[in-house]
User: What shape does this take?
Amino acid sequence: MAAEGYAGQLIGVVTLLGAAVVAVPLFKRIGLGSVLGYLAAGLAIGPFGLALVSDPQSILHLAELGVVMFLFIIGLEMKPSHLWSLRKQIFGLGSLQVVVCGILLTLVGVVGYNAPWPVAFVAAMGFVLTSTAIVMQVLAERGDVNAPRGQRMVSILLLEDMLIVPLLALVAFLAPADAAHAAADPLWQRLGVAALALGALVGAGLWLLNPLFRILAKAGAREVMTAAALLVVLGAALLMELGGLSMAMGAFVAGVLLSESSFRHQLEADIEPFRGLLLGLFFLAVGMSLNLSVVRDNWLNIATGVVALMLVKALCIYSVARFAGSSKADATDRAVLMAQGGEFAFVLYSAALAQNVISENINAVMTAIVVLSMVLTPLVVVLHKRFARAEAPSLDGVDTPHDLHGNVLIIGFGRVGQIASQAPLARGATLSVIELDTEVIQTAARYLNFKVYYGDGARPEVLHAAGAHHADVI
Assistant: This one.
């Protein structure tokens, strides 16, 4: 009997892996991306497809660890000083987007669907919380995570992750009197527990983790280092979960605290395989969670809801981005990529259902709307990439070289070029730098206070203007 149980579990694992191995390369080959491949594979093998997997919710809870590990790796790349420099984007830009989108989406529910305002508010705020998993996966595939446009999206996602605690508190406040009376802890107690959990995590990160990894490194057991990396990620996630905060937020904070550690690269290498596998499993589970029976029974409300909420949210994101000074291309890209609901909507709707703020039918309909918006986003991204007109790059602050006389000429100012510039600068050399990417030039001027000129290093006349004939080293 036990052997049959193990065989059944193994069949489920093989089914999940097989679906991913078949669908993802196929979808990438036809240009639709890996995320849409995972979602389609999940829909095909789930309980409303071929029914090869019957319990997508348990898989979804496990696979959320993929999002957790992704945020840990992002944290490793983000030193505290860099995070501090993003504070205006996190709390300024992020807050503005959340507030404006929350108001407009609530009005959609009240005016368009005659929903009571507490129900419309909860449904709207669940949709405001963008899917961290989908946005981060697309940014990673494009190589935009550390680009300025990617950093702005990451900042907004971080604020939305932090919002889950106050939103859950608001759900308790909106609950009917009998449900509110039955609710457990008061708001001040929840905030206190969250603050204690965060303080404990920061304390452990500052004073315990680096000594722990030094001891394990001296032991020379690589598998123990991998186990310790997983322990840090999952332990931080569990601590934040017990404190009522987001697991992903806990992993991100742990990553930031270890970003200046000498073990950072080893930790990233150890976590990366688990992150990729679990994140793929998350997308499979989202596809399996799409309840086609609910979609069939409420198709009109769901269809109009998906279109209305995604369209209003996209217009809101675009308007906020333009108001904050982003270019039309960046604002459009952000609107297309962040117009869906996210995984935290499931948490918010479940809490609202438990406290009788929303009904079972509204919970099912809104869950289907969020899942469909997540499914549609990769497709919309692909269509935008194919049909959008490329915007000419901004040349603000970009100058072409003319009669430069630096004794060291550096061609290209990417990561390698920036590293190569350090030694000549330390020896007092005069540098001339040319770069073809205007965004790199503007970023170097804005954040590094470094003058880089625009030019193609493959053209002899550009090299001459950049002073190649005077330079001692190129």
In short: The chain has a mean pLDDT of 80. The longest strand covers residues 431-435. Residues 408-465 form a domain with the Rossmann fold fold (CATH 3.40.50.720). The first helix runs from residue 2 to 29.
